[in-house]
Amino acid sequence: MPVRVLENAAPSQVSGANSGQTSFQFCSLLGVGQAFSGTQNVSSLQKEDEAWRVNVRIQGCDLEHGYLCGTMEALNVPMADTPVVTFWEGEIVDTKNYTFFTGKWEATQEDDIRHWTKFPSFSPLLAQVEVDGGKTLDLSNYPYIFMRWKEQYFVNVGTDCGLTIAGFYYVCFSCSDGSINGFYYDPNSSPFQKLDLKSTNDGRSGFSFSSYELQ
User: Fold this and answer.
1) pLDDT band for position 164 (50/70/90)?
2) In this structure, are strands 144-154 and 84-92 parallel, antiparallel, or unpaired?
3) In terms of DSSP bridges, do strands 168-174 and 180-185 run parallel, antiparallel, or are they unpaired?
4) H helix or E strand, kind and range, residue 110
5) What backbone phi and psi angles, to 5 degrees, belong to 113?
6) Per DSSP, which regions of the chain are E strands?
7) Element (H, E) at 131
8) How many CB atoms lie within 10 A of CB 183?
9) Residue 67's pLDDT is what?
10) Helix-strand-coil split of the chain, %, nearest 5
């Protein structure tokens, strides 16, 4: 949820072809109720004074259909009097339900490649993704899970809060330690805004739906 910008303003771990039948093993660190804390830097230059604290909580996860959802809470947004909470839905790149090519939200295949290659763990996959979006890759045992998170609505503030949810996040999740890295994409926002989160492993950090009435 970046600041609104007005207009004019390792290869051996890749198993090979799978005919689109990737099925991820359950990862407890990505389960419902898991919480993450960290920062989002709203400057492409990654300036420390342009970062705000962020809490994320997983509210739903359906690996079979490549779906998950949750909330994102920005705690120290300069123009907001209260923490800003959004509800997001995610697509898991499993090559069965979703590939590395977004195909919507104003993202071209070139935009996809440019953002995915920001993650070092994507490098072994690049050659095949450039061919077919990665749909013939077997990612079932890959140590990272790639996703897209799209914020759907503001939970506790109005749309006049000074932030935008027009774009979406390219996300890389580490199955080993639960860390999350992401980059925000929106043609009208500063490019490559970085999301950096760590698993809290306590299920308590961040926003809970019980605090607000959902839309």
Assistant:
1) confident
2) antiparallel
3) antiparallel
4) helix 109-116
5) -60, -40
6) 35-41, 51-62, 67-74, 84-92, 144-154, 168-174, 180-185, 193-199
7) helix 126-132
8) 19
9) 95
10) 15, 30, 50
The model's pLDDT over 168-196, given as tens digits with 9 standing for 90+, comes to 999 999 999 999 999 999 988 888 999 99
Buried b (16+ CB within 10 A) or exposed e, 1-15: bbbbeeeeeeeeebe
**Residue 193 neighbours by CB under 8 Å, 6+ apart:** 2, 40, 41, 42, 43, 44, 183, 184
Q: In this predicted structure, what is the pLDDT of residue 209?
A: 38
Residue written as token pair 């899970």: 145
pLDDT tens digit sequence for 28-57:
778 899 999 999 987 655 555 568 899 999
Tokens for 186, please give them: 């929106």
Sequence-distant (≥ 6) Cβ neighbours of residue 210 within 8 angstroms: none
What single-letter amino acid sits at 55? N
Q: Please report the pLDDT score of residue 1 as a whole number.
A: 64
Residue 194 neighbours by CB distance under 10 Å: 19
Helix (H, G, I), strand (E, B) or coil at 29: helix
The rounded distance, in Å, linking the Cα atoms of 133 and 103 is 10
- Give pTM, 2 decimals: 0.83
